[in-house]
Automatic annotation (TrEMBL):
Organism: Kryptolebias marmoratus
Chief localisation class: secreted
UniProt name for this protein: Protein Wnt
SMART domains the UniProt entry points to: WNT1 (SM00097)
InterPro entries documented for this protein: Wnt, Wnt2, Wnt_C, Wnt_CS
Keywords: Developmental protein, Disulfide bond, Extracellular matrix, Glycoprotein, Lipoprotein, Secreted, Signal, Wnt signaling pathway
Pfam families documented for this protein: wnt (PF00110)
GO CC term, one of those recorded: extracellular space
GO molecular function, one term: cytokine activity
Role of this protein: Ligand for members of the frizzled family of seven transmembrane receptors.
Family: Belongs to the Wnt family.
Length: 372
């Protein structure tokens, strides 16, 4: 769908610019017909954006409007979605819940998780972070009409190491945060309930997490790298940093209940510390994710590979929930007997190795359960 939009805009651009050059080369300045032509092409393009924005499932009105006004952001949001899903699956690759409930749902807008669990809190946070990240990057790369490098990072300033000039392109993370907030939070603002408040809170945690990992990069100039002159810029760190941070926040997430007047949260267990604005919050306990339960967002662990020797969450005992596992022997090609050859190559042989793959057994009553 996004591809189609791209093609439409390219088409508008090509037609319009070829019209302009054709008109000017014949020196017949049919300015009005030219304008009419360009306007028509633009209109068809805008219509295209409208059709596309109307066909993305799960957008609320406000999001549709933003999509129509800035059709080029949808590409960036799509990229952001791929990125956060990849990161989420990386963070939970050794766990029963591995973030793959979301595989079919390649939008940040769709129903994410029904249960107000710790996992839902993480998904809302990391998806918001992903959108901030992708939008900010797209701004810096000049892919979007409405934003650019950070306009405030100009001129001369100083830090602990002395004076320097802002140069290059500083990532405009504040813009990314602002737009992601308008776009993603729009959905939660259509309802006023506890879950919406939880989502808004976790969305914010995710957005601000990206900003935490902005780093200043500098280049030295001056006689033989003496660094008498420096130019610096602000850049976002790798998204993995944000993923790792939010993963720690997931571990320390706080179970809360709504407070009496419905404006904020109270920690559910009084023995625990209060939730700060940087903590992820959730309302409901997680299922154990052992069995398939679509309602709870659990796919079950039948068929998952596990590690026979590990005592952690990826160990067969934990992963398979005590149901046991099947072992299959597969052949794996590895590089071996590598030799250094003068000069300068490393030559290896392909060796065949048999490795055991362990996969969790399905629950015994699975067939019976499937039929009901
Ligand atoms: C996650 O788990 C499901 C089943 O529990 C499995 O089908 C899927 O391949 C797993 N995904 C990843 C990325 O490991
Ligand atoms: C399995 O777990 C052990 C112990 O934690 C670890 O040393 C090993 O690398 C793991 N194997 C695989 C294939 O991940």
């Amino acid at each position: 769908m996004v591809e189609l939009r791209r093609q439409l805009w390219v088409w508008v651009f090509v037609l319009c610019s070829s019209a302009v050059s054709a008109f000017s080369s014949t020196h017949v300045v049919h300015i009005w017909s030219m304008l009419l032509f360009c306007w028509t092409s633009w209109y068809i393009g805008a219509l295209g954006a409208r059709v596309i924005c109307d066909n993305i499932p799960g957008l609320v009105n406000k999001q549709r409007q933003l999509c129509q006004r800035h059709p080029d952001i949808m590409q960036a949001i799509g990229e952001g979605t791929k990125e956060w899903i990849r990161e989420c699956q990386h963070q939970f690759r050794h766990h029963r819940w591995n973030c793959s409930t979301l595989d079919r749902d390649h939008t940040v807008f769709g129903r994410v998780l029904l249960r107000s669990s710790r996992e839902a809190a993480f998904v809302y946070a990391i998806s918001s972070a992903g959108v901030v990240y992708a939008l900010t990057r797209a701004c810096s790369q000049g892919e979007l009409k409405m934003c650019n490098c950070d306009p405030d990072k100009r001129g001369r300033t100083h830090d602990t190491r002395g004076e320097f000039d802002w140069g290059g392109c500083s990532d405009n993370v504040n813009y990314g945060i602002k737009f992601a907030k308008a776009f993603i939070d729009a959905k939660e603002r259509t309802v006023r309930d506890a879950r919406a408040l939880m989502n808004l809170h976790n969305n914010r945690c995710g957005r601000t997490a990206v900003k935490r990992f902005m780093k200043q990069e500098c280049k030295c100039h001056g006689v033989s790298g003496s660094c008498t002159l420096r130019t610096c810029w602000k850049a976002m760190a790798d998204f993995r940093k944000t993923g790792d941070y939010l993963r720690r926040k997931y571990n320390g997430a706080v179970e809360v209940t709504m407070n009496q007047d419905g404006t904020g949260f109270t920690v559910a267990n009084k023995a625990f510390r209060k939730a700060t604005k940087n903590d992820l919050v959730y309302f409901e306990n997680s299922p154990d994710y052992c069995l398939q339960d679509k309602e709870a967002g659990s796919l079950g662990t039948a068929g998952r590979t596990c590690n026979k020797t590990s005592r952690g969450t990826d160990g067969c005992e934990v992963m398979c929930c005590g149901r046991g596992y099947d072992t299959t022997r597969v052949k794996q090609i590895t590089k071996c007997e590598c030799k250094f050859k003068w000069c300068c190559a490393v030559e290896c042989k392909d060796c065949e190795e048999a490795v055991d793959i362990h996969t969790c057994k399905a629950p015994k009553r699975a067939e019976w359960l499937d039929q009901t």
